[in-house]
Design a protein that fits this description.
This protein is α+β, with helices and mostly antiparallel strands. It has three domains: about 1-40; about 55-245, Penicillin-binding protein 2a (Domain 2) (Alpha-Beta Complex), CATH 3.90.1310; about 255-610, DD-peptidase/beta-lactamase superfamily (Beta-lactamase, 3-Layer(aba) Sandwich). Strands 4, 5, 6, 7, 12 and 20 form a six-stranded mixed sheet that branches. A five-stranded antiparallel sheet has the order 14-13-24-23-22. A three-stranded antiparallel sheet has the order 3-10-11. Helix 13 packs across helix 15 (about 380-390) and helix 15 (about 380-390) crosses helix 18. The chain is elongated and about 145 Å long. The termini are far apart.
């Protein structure tokens, strides 16, 4: 053998090979030692954490939301335990094998599960594949636990609306937090998959209802099965809320409105507390508590009757003859009329070449103010409105709280519309027409109001002129004084009329119910003095429909029915506004409902008073 020109014998050749092998072994061991040093020193913390993650699972414990009670402390919204089917992606060895086994008894969306796992932020974080599974499904998962490594059950609280659809537009519902919402929330205690308030009280008071999550530290085996609990940090409960709502009155209002569309608002005139608020059609918030299917959501948002709309604060309707309260007050205050001013009603009011008809074709004859309100004579108020002019009439309407939000503590309240000459010029680009004043004087034309504005107006008339910001929160077990202070009753203003004017109007409203010729006599209650005003709001004016009865007209063309009232007359406990969509005449469709509702509440309050004594 030759190396570098030198010839080596056999023994020297062996020595060279041994040297090369020794160097190779030395370098290999050096790399091994360096690798061990790197893993045990440099990467020790990271590997230790990974080992701990393999051995220990941290399970978040969702907080129980605060409960919601009515004004008398009756529980109306609580929480119930529910079982969620979850998986830990890291422990799933063969997802395509496990999913068919799960799907054999539990209805799941395999493709959605795969997407959720792919979008999961951490392999050891649980992914919920189905919420609120049934007891049969729970039993199946427990029975096949050995075949479902990495699949487990999580128990979490679920919102429970004890009265179903009752009060759904007040209470609202929960929905899974969206990425946009998550990004907008500064509080880090929210995660994807959490359910948050999306509507109503649940949304408005999310910050105090939600509570604070806890966590459970669990030792698991290689199959992901739970061995023992190392430590548990219990979640904090959310704060409880007490509403001004009377749940028994709410139930009665919902029952009376069954089969009808529209709204009811009942207010305590003494402080503006909302006693009941109904919007129909409604929805069942329990169906949202665990997440709704795309099909159900699509059906409800595309429903022509808009069940998610809170008509009590978002429905905008012509006020009809209930607006005559405003016209009467403006006429008295501006000196256009006195209580004794009489106007002849021949069945129409002539302006130029056009006749504005009264609802009674043959006319009411000679009317003074009181009888004009009692019998709801259109011609009388056409005349008063014409003498006032639109801007003076509108100024009083604004003063009665119409055409502006009441600032009730619910999101999405609409303002309604009270027109002025300036408004029409700026919005329509057209001058005001005198005939539009005539229509506005009886609550038609451009005028639009919400049911809560009407109820609040009657509450102010009843209490002597104080216009409150309606409140819906009675108290809350929270230290967030600012939030609760904002929800408390505040005086928005006072009706811009004298006590004398109010007394005249209140007396006439009493006659609407008690007089034999009164349009609201269907709300008359034995033993309870009621005062109120009917209204029939025209939806569309078609010449060919003018002489037809309501039942002969297409549903969507029928008039809306109003009745706004307060009781008892001398010491008001409740003010209520009822709006029946396409119900026809206020006296026949809305007044009886209001009467029954008032009777239920007043008798209940009287009964409470006797028991306390």
């Amino acid at each position: 053998m030759k190396i570098g020109g030198l010839e080596l014998n056999f023994s020297e050749e062996i020595k060279v090979r041994m040297l090369v092998f020794t160097l190779f072994i030395a370098v290999s061991f050096s790399f091994l030692i360096l690798r061990l040093w790197y893993l045990q020193v440099i990467k020790s913390d990271e590997l230790k954490l990974q080992a701990e993650n393999n051995r220990m699972r941290i399970v978040p414990l969702k907080a129980y939301r605060g409960k919601i009670f009515d004004r008398d402390g009756r529980e109306i919204i609580s929480n119930r335990p529910s079982f969620n089917l979850s998986i830990i992606p890291e422990y799933i060895k063969d997802l395509d094998k496990i999913l068919p086994l799960i799907a054999s008894s539990v209805k799941v969306d395999a493709e959605k599960i795969k997407r959720d796992i792919k979008n999961s932020s951490a392999p050891f974080q649980s992914v919920v594949i189905k919420k609120d599974i049934s007891w049969d499904e729970v039993a199946f998962i427990e029975e096949h636990s050995l075949d479902l490594a990495g699949v487990f059950l999580e128990i979490e609280p679920m919102r429970n609306y004890l009265y179903g659809e009752t009060g759904s537009h007040i209470f609202g519902y929960l929905g899974e937090i969206t990425k946009t919402q998550l990004e907008g929330l500064k509080v880090s205690d929210y995660r994807l998959g959490d359910f948050v308030g999306q509507y109503g009280i649940e949304k408005r008071y999310e910050s105090i209802l939600k509570g604070k999550r806890g966590s459970k530290y669990i030792e698991v085996d290689v199959a992901g099965r739970e061995l023992k609990v190392f430590k548990q940090v219990d979640p904090d409960f959310g704060y409880n809320l007490y509403l001004t709502i009377d749940i028994e009155l709410q139930k009665e209002a919902e029952r009376l409105f069954e089969g009808k569309n529209g709204a009811v608002v009942a207010i305590d005139p003494k402080d503006g507390s909302i006693l009941a608020m109904v919007s129909k059609p409604s929805f069942n918030p329990n169906l949202f508590a665990g997440g709704v299917s795309k099909t159900y959501w699509s059906n409800i948002i595309n429903d022509a009757y808009k069940p998610l709309q809170n008509r009590a604060i978002q429905g905008q309707y012509p006020p009809g003859s209930v607006f005559k309260i405003v016209t009467a007050a403006a006429g008295l205050e501006e000196g256009v009329i006195t209580p004794d001013t009489t106007i002849d009603c021949h069945g129409y009011f002539k302006l130029g070449k056009k006749n504005y008809r009264c609802w009674r074709k043959g006319g009411h004859g000679r009317m003074d103010l009181r009888n004009a309100i009692i019998q709801s004579c259109d011609v009388y108020f056409y005349t008063v409105g014409f003498r006032l002019g639109i801007d003076r009439l509108s100024r009083y309407a604004f003063g009665f709280g119409l055409g502006s939000p009441t600032d009730v503590d619910l999101e999405g309240e609409k303002t309604g519309l009270i027109p002025t000459e300036e408004w029409k010029e700026s919005v329509k680009g057209e001058p005001w027409i005198l005939g539009e004043t005539v229509s506005a004087s009886i609550g038609q034309g451009f005028d639009l109001v919400t049911p809560i504005q009407m109820a609040n107006m009657l509450a102010a008339v009843a209490n002597g002129g104080t216009l409150y910001k309606p409140k819906i929160i009675s108290k809350a077990e929270t230290t967030n004084e600012k939030l609760i202070k904002e929800s408390n009753s505040k005086i928005k203003g006072n009706l811009s009329v004298s006590q004398k004017t109010l007394d005249i109007i209140k007396d006439a409203l009493h006659g609407v119910v008690t007089d034999q010729r009164g349009t609201g006599r269907a709300s008359n209650i034995k033993g309870i003095e009621v005062a109120g005003k009917t209204g029939t709001a025209q939806v569309i004016k078609l010449p060919e429909m003018e002489d037809k009865k309501d039942e002969e007209m297409p549903y969507e063309f029928r008039d809306h029915a109003w009745f706004a009232a307060f009781a008892p007359y001398e010491n008001p406990l409740i003010a209520v506004a009822v709006l029946v969509e396409h119900g026809g005449h206020g006296g026949s469709a809305a007044a009886p409902l209001a009467g029954k509702l008032i009777k239920s509440y007043v008798e209940n309050q009287n009964s409470k008073g006797k028991n306390q004594n």
